[in-house]
Amino acid sequence: MTALWHQQQKDIEAGNIKLKAFLQGLVSTVTKEVEEVRARGLDIEVKGHHCPTCKKHLLRKTKGKSGYFWGCRGYPDCKATFPNKGSKPDFNSKPKSTGQATDHACPECEKGKLVKRTGKSKKTKKSFNWYGCDQFPTCKARFFEKDGKPEIPDQEDA
């Protein structure tokens, strides 16, 4: 089709056909093609990895701070991510540990339990332990560790 249109443009240049006739033919051809697509649709096969979490979207390979990973295109509604393994999402990998569960009740929301986590100081580069509520982000309670336990300030000090 483009070869035909190219030839017709050369004919316009040579004066063999008028621009108006070319444009009318162009509009007619495009209109017929659009009507045909509307009537029959397009048979497009989408290839990709479907998100096993939301089952609505495809996954997209993205470069992050630590290299490539696969994330759902439905973000932020679906926050599913998978590590990259051989340029494919690794659905069998275990999720990273979010911390060690404890028996300490959260003193702020009184619904959750505190989870022991490890952090790293940006200044000293040393690791330290801290505790956060397992109800995050609803409860944002955080406590440093002292003597192997969460350091919870007395309610009277607040």
UniProtKB/TrEMBL annotation:
<feature type="domain" description="DNA topoisomerase type IA zn finger">
    <location>
        <begin position="105"/>
        <end position="144"/>
    </location>
</feature>
<dbReference type="InterPro" id="IPR013498">
    <property type="entry name" value="Topo_IA_Znf"/>
</dbReference>
<feature type="domain" description="DNA topoisomerase type IA zn finger">
    <location>
        <begin position="50"/>
        <end position="84"/>
    </location>
</feature>
<keyword id="KW-0238">DNA-binding</keyword>
<dbReference type="Pfam" id="PF01396">
    <property type="entry name" value="Zn_ribbon_Top1"/>
</dbReference>
<feature type="region of interest" description="Disordered">
    <location>
        <begin position="84"/>
        <end position="104"/>
    </location>
</feature>
<protein>
    <submittedName>
        <fullName>Topoisomerase DNA-binding C4 zinc finger domain-containing protein</fullName>
    </submittedName>
</protein>
<dbReference type="GO" id="GO:0003677">
    <property type="term" value="F:DNA binding"/>
</dbReference>
